[in-house]
Amino acid sequence: MRALVIDDSRTMRRIVAGTLERLGFETAQAEHGREALDLLDAGLEVDLACVDWNMPVMDGLQFVTEVRNDPSRRGITLMMVTTEAETAQIVKALAAGAHEYLIKPFTPDAIRDKLDLLGLVPVEETV
């Protein structure tokens, strides 16, 4: 499984990427939505994108809208990971095509729970 972490905060990218890597994901990172789209245009294939809302150049809502408008990218699961906690913002993001919404600050367990809801937590092998 591959994930793209999109956030203008380097620290937040590291936190989210580190959590995803501990869950078995390979990760790539982008500082804003435009950089993320450029990575996808260059051939990066991902199963999941964790997207901040407030970023320069292209914000998270614009990124979600762009991805959803491209039929070849319909398979990417989009999860907003943001400080935007107002119900209207959550509704707007979900209406634009985000699959889940996680409000900062969060715990690693909260990310895992959201991924579990989305069916994206790697199945642990039993011995």
Account of the 3D structure:
This protein is α/β, with parallel strands linked by helices and 127 residues long. 40% of the residues lie in helices and 19% in strands. The protein has five helices and five strands; from the N terminus they run βαβαβαβαβα. Helix 2 runs parallel beside helix 3. The chain is globular and about 30 Å long. The model has no long low-confidence stretch (mean pLDDT 91).
Strand content: 15-25%
Helix/sheet category: alpha/beta
Alpha-carbon Rg, integer? 14 Å
Total beta strand runs: 5
- C-alpha termini separation: 22 Å
The helix tally amounts to 5
Q: Which residues sit in consecutive blocks of at least 5 with pLDDT less than 50?
A: none
The major β-sheet equals:
5 strands, parallel
User: Percent of residues in helical segments?
Assistant: 40-55%
**What spatial order of strands do you see in the largest sheet?**
2-1-3-4-5
Shape descriptor:
globular
- What is the overall pLDDT average? 91
Q: What is the string of SSEs from the N terminus onward?
A: EHEHEHEHEH
Sequence-ordered SSE layout with sheet pairings:
Blueprint: E1 2-6, H1 10-22, E2 26-30, H2 33-41, E3 48-51, H3 60-68, E4 77-82, H4 87-96, E5 100-103, H5 108-117
Parallel strand pairs: 1-2, 1-3, 3-4, 4-5
Helix pairs in contact: 2-3
